[in-house]
UniProtKB/TrEMBL annotation:
Cellular component GO terms, alphabetical: membrane
Signal peptide boundaries: none
Name the record gives this protein: ANKH inorganic pyrophosphate transport regulator
Keywords: Membrane, Transmembrane, Transmembrane helix, Transport
Any one Gene Ontology molecular-function term assigned to this protein's record: phosphate transmembrane transporter activity
Region feature Disordered, mapped onto this chain: 445-475
Cross-referenced PANTHER family: PROGRESSIVE ANKYLOSIS PROTEIN HOMOLOG (PTHR28384:SF1)
InterPro entries hit by this protein: ANKH (IPR009887)
Localisation: Membrane
Tagged with keyword Cell inner membrane: no
Listed GO biological process terms: phosphate ion transmembrane transport
Amino acid sequence: MPSGCQAPGFIWGKMALNRGIAAVKEDAVEMLASYGLAYSLMKFFTGPMSDFKNVGLVFVNSKRDRTKAVLCMVVAGAIAAVFHTLIAYSDLGYYIINKLHHVDESVGNKTRRAFLYLAAFPFMDAMAWTHAGILLKHKYSFLVGCASISDVIAQVVFVAILLHSHLECREPLLIPILSLYMGALVRCTTLCLGYYKNIHDIIPDRSGPELGGDATVRKMLSFWWPLALILATQRISRPIVNLFVSRDLGGSSAATEAVAILTATYPVGHMPYGWLTEIRAVYPAFDKNNPSNKLVSTSNTVTAAHIKKFTFVCMALSLTLCFVMFWTPNVSEKILIDIIGVDFAFAELCVVPLRIFSFFPVPVTVRAHLTGWLMTLKKTFVLAPSSVLRIIVLITSLVVLPYLGVHGATLGVGSLLAGFVGESTMVAIAACYVYRKQKKKMENETAAEGEDSAMTDIPPAEEGTDIVEMREENE
């Protein structure tokens, strides 16, 4: 449960950052749209890196393994920073942001400037997630949860401080961005200190043969890339939605308003179900079939049945929260007005998109539970097709739904739901395929063991012949 607190914590942080923009009354909608575009593009780069948490959870059993994981993240962070700089200064960025999204010159310039400011964030985020995975392996989920809450508190505090500084007049975009950096710095520092204090001295320099030896960079990357591809498609989904919604409305003021609505509703809609994604860490952390769990001693035995019951309860709780928050009259509007700081007219425009978010918990739970099981088996490669199907379904919905009269933020969130359903369906098919192969393999092994035991019960032919000959001699 402490691990599950990370997602709601990050969502509260996002809402605090949005409030930091909305509090700037002049051009608040334009600022929300600019920051939303930059943030969603940045998450496309940081998303795959956050899945290195699962590499730390499954593969890092020694100091040498941890060094390899950290080096991978250093390289990935440097590559992400280069892309941020290119998009901010080159014609590529002008084409991606101004031309593709059909936004005006003012929004485009603000978006590219915000994207440049966020260039160092992917590296900090990656370092934090890598150490979070190692801590989760050793059952320090409370520390990971505390780090996430500290991140949010730091963001809220710095938004409040910076709103009273000269930045509100000179560069309002720096208010949420600097707050985001301070939160990430607090989280990364907490996790790294937690690793050195609790784990660094107790793990071996190298992994022994009972744990499969040292994990190679190739093994880490082959395990990570399908998960990274899935998360990259999840992160790129939001920029794709922003792109199609903006182009559908012709780059007008209505398009800017629609992107601003999406920016405001994403964190609020994500809040009741976002934490369900952390369910995928339960199987690798507790399942006894995972050899790396031999490092961690625990007195309580957690079975697959326990994990399934826990997953179902989490899904039921999330669905209940969604319907209470988004279908009870005036509740969602009050959240948007009180927390993000938008006016009532803008909040009313967010009601329908938020109600569509009520149906997200079911596909998210199915995907998270089955992904965790496949991670334990180290069969993540079968998940790759699900990311492709998600993008196909998403783009198809974004193209088809406008012909049915669906536009604006409703078009964006509805298409996201369709993409989630398509992805979860493919994950379920992949899990069934792996389950059938595992079952067939076990049946073959059982049959082979039965044949071996039957052979050992029958005396060798030569031994039987010797017995007969001895009897004949005695006679």
